């Protein structure tokens, strides 16, 4: 019985990593352009891994996404900014690992006190904001002068500019995660509970 449970766990982990790879490769699947914005959906897969399999496996799936972003920054950058900042694993890999850690632990802490759907919503929002705040915060901290030049903004206006990106991209991504994580994660958790 334990062997079957481990095989199920590993197969779900492998499927989620495969989904992250597909989201990175297939246009408009992992990054959806809407009204001049590019909304990321890959973090939702990482958050689902964290709430269904736990923070450690969420970190593994997030790490897979971060490694793909890091490699792409060298060989096939997705933007002109990518070779400048995403070649640094502190910006490309670490925040993606922490999505899984934060979302998983938020879910574990809240599921004892809240309904499952609400716990999943908070975990989704927390994981999404972890990614946004860490990536942009690290860009603002580590690449302050380079990013100001790239964005063609006055250095004193860089932080307000990055905060604007949080408002235009980060908030919609957090709302999307707050909606989709319970819709996808809830049935997976029920099915996983049934399988064990």
Element layout with pairings:
Layout: H1 2-25, E1 31-34, E2 37-40, H2 42-53, H3 55-75, H4 82-85, H5 89-92, H6 94-110, H7 116-142, H8 144-151, H9 158-195
Antiparallel strand pairs: 1-2
Helix pairs in contact: 1-2, 1-3, 2-3, 2-6, 2-7, 2-9, 3-6, 6-7, 7-9
Describe this structure in words.
The protein is mainly α. The protein has nine helices and two strands, in the order αββαααααααα. β1 (31-34) and β2 (37-40) form a beta hairpin. α2 crosses α9 (158-195). The longest helix is centred in the C-terminal third of the chain and has 38 residues, at 158-195. The protein is globular. Keywords: Membrane, Transmembrane, Transmembrane helix. The chain crosses the membrane at residues 7-26, 32-53, 65-87, 93-110, 117-141, 161-189. This is ECF transporter S component.
Tell me, briefly, the overall form: globular
Percent of residues in helices: over 70%
CATH third-level topology? Arp2/3 complex 21 kDa subunit ARPC3
Sheet bearing the most strands, described? 2 strands, antiparallel
Brief account:
It holds the Pfam family ECF_trnsprt. This protein has 196 residues and is mostly helical.
Please supply descriptive tags for the structure shown above.
196 residues, mainly alpha, Arp2/3 complex 21 kDa subunit ARPC3, two-stranded antiparallel sheet, 9 helices, 2 strands, 4% strand
């Amino acid at each position: 019985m334990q062997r079957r449970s481990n095989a199920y766990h590993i197969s779900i982990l492998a499927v989620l990593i495969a989904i992250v790879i597909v989201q990175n490769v297939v246009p408009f699947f992992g990054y959806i352009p809407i009204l001049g914005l590019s909304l990321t959906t890959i973090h939702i897969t990482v958050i689902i891994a964290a709430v269904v399999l736990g923070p450690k496996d969420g970190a593994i799936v997030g790490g897979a996404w971060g490694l793909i972003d890091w490699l792409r920054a060298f060989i096939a950058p997705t933007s002109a900014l990518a070779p400048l900042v995403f070649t640094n694993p502190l910006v490309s890999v670490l925040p993606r690992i922490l999505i899984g850690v934060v979302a998983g632990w938020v879910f574990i802490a809240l599921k004892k006190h809240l309904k499952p759907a609400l716990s999943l919503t908070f975990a989704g929002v927390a994981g999404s904001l972890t990614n946004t705040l860490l990536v942009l915060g690290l860009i603002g901290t580590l690449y302050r002068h380079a990013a100001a030049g790239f964005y063609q903004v006055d250095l004193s206006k860089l932080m307000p500019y990055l905060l604007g990106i949080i408002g235009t991209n980060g908030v919609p991504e957090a709302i999307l995660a707050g909606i989709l994580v319970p819709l996808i994660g809830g049935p997976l958790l029920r099915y996983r509970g049934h399988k064990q």
